[in-house]
Amino acid sequence: MLANKPQCVITGCTIRMPDLPLHHHMNGDLFKLGDLYIFNGNPVELPPGQYEYKRTVTLPDGAEYFHRRHVVVFHASEATFNDAAVEYMA
To answer: The pTM is what?
Structure first.
């Protein structure tokens, strides 16, 4: 039995981070587990100006990005959420 299970906190959001080439972004869902966030991304990295959700998360260098699975794991204090994302999670 799991003591903690990830909870989906945003269904449909965009993540921006330095590890993606050419300022691209990914769309996906954001989960929270303790003080960590887990982003489960769509395997398509999109260039700027293409489809983005209103809810966005921006990360600095240092997030764990598992390229083959399009999963990003980061500490809650590392993320910057836009107003739409904060409102959605409230």
So the answer is: 0.86
